[in-house]
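Sample entry (245 residues):
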Amino acid sequence: MVRDASGKAPYRRIADQVIGRIDSGELQPGDAVPSVSQIMEAESVSRATAARVLTELRSEGYVVATPGVGTVVAARKTLTAGSDRLRMLQAGGDGFREGERVEILEAEMAPAPGDVADALGLDADAQVIRRRRRYLDDQGVITLSTSYLAGSLADVAPELLVAEPLPKMTFGLIEERTGRRATRRRDTVSIRPVAEEDADLMEAEAGTPTLVMVNRYCDQHGEPTEYAVDYLGVGRELSAEYDLD
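Predicted structure, serialized as tokens:
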């Protein structure tokens, strides 16, 4: 495939141009994006290349095909991160926004990976509780989330090893059984490719770049309570707002 001076394949260059128009606000949710025929004419590319541009934009969550209308800019997908769920729970809610739901995929005892052991202050290969779930709404995957907690918590909260939703989530259950309230967190954000084994769960192609947020929660005594790794749904928008006073 012929590439331009930027080193990008033509379909990628054109897709990035459309993404730039979306990110700048020139194209708003619901606005039509160039059709295959329009891309062919404007960019002097083949039908196959023009069609791939729209395929890429759809797979990355920027556009959707609407019957009778064509391909339009998708509504922005807001994100509810683990820290948001904690805040909603502490405010008396259930940790979910309207329309959100959760699927519990795994709940088991497992040896702690090195980074998990370090984060939780445990010995290498110590047993930890591993809970894996998928949060969804009507726009698809919000996050694919894995939480790690010290294995000793299973003695006071055996529900952590049951693959079912927790009424008060992990935060509320730990506080109820131990008095340890999550009061502080440290976030680390990176970009990683969707793994082959997670592609179906993420509803994305393997290798698609996505944001990953790692949260380390600590209690009122400064001791770590939970280590969570969230793969954000492709096309989701992560934003934060802070008071500067």
